[in-house]
Amino acid sequence: MNFQQLRSVREAVRRGFNLTEVAHALHTSQPGVSRQIRELEDELGITLFVRAGKRLTGLTEPGRAVLPIVERLLTEAGNLQRAGEDFARHDSGPLAIAATHSQARYALPTAVRDFRLAHPNVQLALHQGSPQQVAQMLLDGAADIGIATEALAHYPGLVALPCYSWTHSVIVPHGHPLAQQADAQQPLTLARLAEHPLITYDAGYTGRGHIDEAFERAGIAPQIALSAMDADVIKTYVELGLGVGIVASIAFDGERDRHLRAIDARHLFAVNMTRLAIRRGSYLRRYAYDFIETFASPLTRSVVEQALTAPAVEDDAL
């Protein structure tokens, strides 16, 4: 048994049993992947995959039982390598961060700058995606640390720690009726918002769920004129007069966005929580703990280590 055999099995599942893609991911040939899998099956004395001719179509019952063990072995092999590097080269190496666009654009820059000044020999890679994609990158081992919204708390394979809470703001051009009403100290309501076409985040991004829930509870069906993955796009179309924007408050900068007006909407939509997640069972190098604390100072190494050793419990409160 060897690690290449285990990687072939894991990647076959991850790549939807497409051996051409597996071979590309592992930098080998398709016959080589098939051989590695066959050799492991022969050694274990079981068939791991359902086959249709030469194609793999799924996992057998023994394959489903063995896959978690394969995942753990490869995770621990990676942990062993990182532990060795941590002691041999304690302040140099790679660190992959996965984050949503809003976190990468508005929350992370200061932390990245400060971390780079303190750790110039660390090769920092920043990947962007939806909360679900961030979670998958962590589970697949493609990222060391993930930063997104509450969705990260719903993956038992991840440890998701709260970082900071935030609210939404309504964004309009200067002179817009909602801006005039705010100047007249008339409270912003969901009903008044719904009188205008809305521009906000795609489903699953940056607290969109809380926006939808608020309108649903009020029995109001808003007109969503446009949805996008990031606040910069939303603000662009608001400035063009296509609708009223709803964005994370951190995404509005009075100096940079001087052509727009932000109206506090914290009383309309539930408070959101940004979370930092790590794959359960993973080994973090010392500089990874430093990055975490740089981004969210309450998340000290002792706090993170305690969370990593706690039993997995899905957060149903969110």
What does this 3D model show about the protein?
This protein has 318 residues and is α/β, with parallel strands linked by helices. The protein has three domains: 3-82, Winged helix-like DNA-binding domain superfamily/Winged helix DNA-binding domain (Arc Repressor Mutant, subunit A, Orthogonal Bundle), CATH 1.10.10.10; 92-165 and 273-309, D-Maltodextrin-Binding Protein, domain 2, CATH 3.40.190; 168-270, Periplasmic binding protein-like II (D-Maltodextrin-Binding Protein, domain 2), CATH 3.40.190. The chain contains 13 helices and twelve strands. It has helices at residues 3-14, 19-25, 30-44, 61-88, 101-107, 109-118, 131-139, 177-183, 190-193, 208-217, 231-239, 286-295, 301-309, and strands at 49-52, 55-59, 93-99, 122-128, 145-148, 158-166, 168-173, 198-201, 224-228, 244-248, 260-264, 272-279. It has a five-stranded mixed β-sheet with strand order 4-3-5-12-6, sandwiched between helices. A five-stranded mixed β-sheet has the order 9-8-10-7-11, with helices on both faces. The protein has a two-stranded antiparallel sheet with strand order 1-2.
